[in-house]
Design a protein that fits this description.
2 helices; five-stranded mixed beta sheet; 37% strand; alpha+beta; 84 residues
Length: 84
């Protein structure tokens, strides 16, 4: 299934603030997930039944899926925490 993409305000704002090479990698990974269902994903049913984290290098993208509408919404982008 090819998902239509919807970007939330926080995700759009963060994407624009990232260095261009990082923003391009994140954008390409989100498109690849929406079109080909490819990517490193951790689903989080405790947070949202159809939500997950897409891991892109040192960045993490929080998204949700709406299967009835065929929409993938990107809500936020943040740096992965380093655990010591």
């Amino acid at each position: 299934m090819i998902w239509k993409l919807r970007w939330g305000f926080a995700a759009r704002t963060t994407l624009r603030a990232l260095p261009l090479p990082t923003a391009e990698r994140v954008d390409a990974a989100v498109i690849r997930l929406a079109e080909d269902e490819e990517g490193t994903i951790t689903y989080v049913p405790d947070i949202h039944p159809m939500g997950g984290y897409l891991h892109v290098g040192s960045m993490v993208v929080f998204f949700t899926l709406e299967p009835k509408e065929g929409v993938m919404t990107v809500w936020n982008i943040f740096r992965r925490r380093r655990l010591i």
